[in-house]
Structure of ATP-binding cassette domain-containing protein:
Amino acid sequence: MAETEPRITVEALTMAFGDKVVQKDVSFTVSSGSIFVIMGGSGCGKSTLLKHMIGLIEPAAGRILYGDRDFYKLTEDQRDRLLRQFGVLFQGGALWSSMTVSQNVALPLELYSSYSAATIADLTAFKLSLVGLDGSGHLMPSEISGGMRKRAGLARALAFDPEILFLDEPSAGLDPISSRRLDDLILQLRDLLGVTVVMVTHELESIFAIADDCVFLDATAKTAIAHGDPKTLRDHSDNAFVRAFLNRREPDRTETVVSAS
Ligand SMILES: Nc1ncnc2c1ncn2[C@@H]1O[C@H](COP(=O)(O)OP(=O)(O)OP(=O)(O)O)[C@@H](O)[C@H]1O
């Protein structure tokens, strides 16, 4: 069950590339221990928002707070320490094709920790077991399925026992069964490790199966037009476009689009 303490606060965020504003005045909070989904149509700025949240792109305006710490006001040292609490799985979840699954998972520990080789081997085996890949560490990425590759990417994202996992389209390209397994794994990791999960996805099945909360970005309004529990939004949002999206219907653009839910 999700706790209610706000873990992340996004406050009046404007995201832009030069003169091109992608989204403006986006505000929401992510509760500690929740699975939070960033959704919206293609090109509305979901991945861009995730990149702002993990320090890759600086806001044009607004703030992103972790607890009461304003991310972009932190010193480099403070920011590095905060980043250590993040686990990130990017779209594609690329593994190095010339390394075994174990070597891929061990890589961040080898690069960014001073653990001994034996400790790294133990930690790697533990992370692989967490994602159900015990016994597969010796295989090359080309020898495992797409679903297993995603799980290996997740094991690597868990290298430093993150408090927050950021996942960009984790189930993209997976068949429905592998996608379902990945959803179950994300839920288990949240329950077992107590991590907060922030996920970009437009897989509705996934959203309804595991998300506690969401923000809905709109490419036309260039702002968030809804937030809350996805099932509640699907059935009761006062925004017709959001209801249509979540019910997989063509939106009726003649209906009034209300700018918040
Ligand atoms: N580095 C960049 N420079 C300029 N424009 C960018 C850059 N990255 C993204 N954009 C633009 O910002 C907008 C949002 O892109 P983004 O990838 O965040 O959307 P998205 O909602 O994640 O899309 P999708 O669901 O298709 O993956 C798009 O118009 C995109 O072209």
User: Anything to note?
Assistant: The two ends are 23 Å apart (CA to CA). The chain is about 35% helix and 25% strand.
